[in-house]
Amino acid sequence: MAWIGGAYSDSRVSAQTTLVLPADADGVARAVGLLRDGQPVALPTETVYGLAADATNGEAVARVYAAKGRPSFNPLIVHVTGLTMVRDLVEVPPAALDLMARFWPGPLTIVLPLREGAGVAGLVVAGLPTLAVRCPDHPTTQAVIEGLGRPVAAPSANASGRISPTRASHVLESLSGRIPLILDAGPTRAGVESTIVAVEDGGVRLLRPGSVPPEALNLAPDAAPAGRIVAPGQLASHYAPAQPVRLEAVAAAPHEFHIGFGPVPGDRSLSPSGDLAEAAANLFDILYAAQASGRPAIAVAPVPAHGLGAAINDRLRRAAAPRE
Ligand code: TXA
Ligand code: MG
């Protein structure tokens, strides 16, 4: 597999036309039909666009991995409409039930023991005894899961390791010709992926900082994602633009596209007023713009570490990490 001019070349994915439809009733019906046929479909959520497949259909899930060029050891999040659906899939201890009551629907993914007979395709969990579940707060994706009547497995709808998509145009940029349909509901609200926690022995452990700030979960803002768990989105280099990325840059050289924040204006600012929610919503869109700028390098202004800053800095560190 190779990264060629912004698109993966992979002989396992047959070339096809990628339709972009509005996320209305017709679009939803079209998406449900394709999912029933075992095809992957890109759907909007409140965090980023996801590339969905019927979670019970192994071939469909394989198409998601192939379209993304995703290493097969990296498990997927399964999206549900709520508690009834989730109880068939995983064991739900009281501490998890409490989190679901507080944060669902919403950007909190919970890793729980997979139930026997859950019916989820083996590729979804990639050999783990646990399953990551989430109930997205987006009417389109809720309507699609409802229409399908089954949970959908959905990673972010970008080529593996690249920038996550917050607009339909971002999905097109990396997956055009590789998937049949994108439902376009405009830019996503939150802009960074869900927070992922594991619930074990009644305790909550942060696996990936995200749209629910650590403070809301009573975790320290700098709670480092634990080293031992395998949440492979935790690969050091991830969310990476094509160019090298330099962090904590209050000033930039002429060859660098400068991403600003607060008092540092830059070429484009994550948030001129220093608002972290605005910065999270703009993050991936501005990384796409920086990548497309034609400048050979990217520099990013300092972003504070508290609140949503935990997720923003996590993504920036991975974007800046040395590539494999
Ligand atoms: O906001 C989001 O979470 C988006 C939208 C589409 O829902 N999805 C998303 O999926 O970010 P993805 O595949 O890009 O990231 C999922 C992360 C990966 O790092 C994966 O390794 C981890 O979740 N993961 C999935 N199942 C897991 C499990 N059983 N245990 C630990 N980590 C798991
Ligand atoms: Mg991703």
Structural description of this entry:
With 324 residues, this protein is of the alpha/beta class. It folds into two domains: 3-216, DHBP synthase (Alpha-Beta Complex), CATH 3.90.870; 245-320, no CATH class. Helix content is 27%, strand content 19%. It contains nine helices and 16 strands. The strands form three sheets. Strands 3-10-4-5-9-6-8-7-11-12 form a ten-stranded mixed β-sheet, with helices on both faces. A four-stranded parallel β-sheet has the order 13-16-14-15, covered by helices on one side. Helix 1 crosses helix 6 (139-148). The longest helix has 17 residues, at 276-292. The two termini are 15 Å apart. Residues 45, 47-48, 50, 74-77, 107, 109, 111, 125, 128, 130-132, 134, 136, 154-156, 193-194, 196, 207, 229, 231-234 line the site of threonylcarbamoyladenylate (TXA).
Major β-sheet profile = 10 strands, mixed
Q: What is the 3D shape?
A: globular
Helix segment tally: 9
Low-confidence stretches: 1-9, 226-230
Ligand identities: threonylcarbamoyladenylate, magnesium ion
CATH homologous superfamily (4th level) name of the largest domain: DHBP synthase
How many domains make up the 3D coordinates?
2
| Rg (CA only) | 19 Å
Number of strand elements:
16
* C-alpha termini separation: 15 Å
- Beta-strand fraction estimate: 15-25%
Specify the structural class.
alpha/beta
Sequence of strands across the biggest β-sheet: 3-10-4-5-9-6-8-7-11-12
Q: What is the average per-residue confidence, as pLDDT, rounded to a whole number?
A: 90
Task: State the helicity in percent bands.
Answer: 25-40%
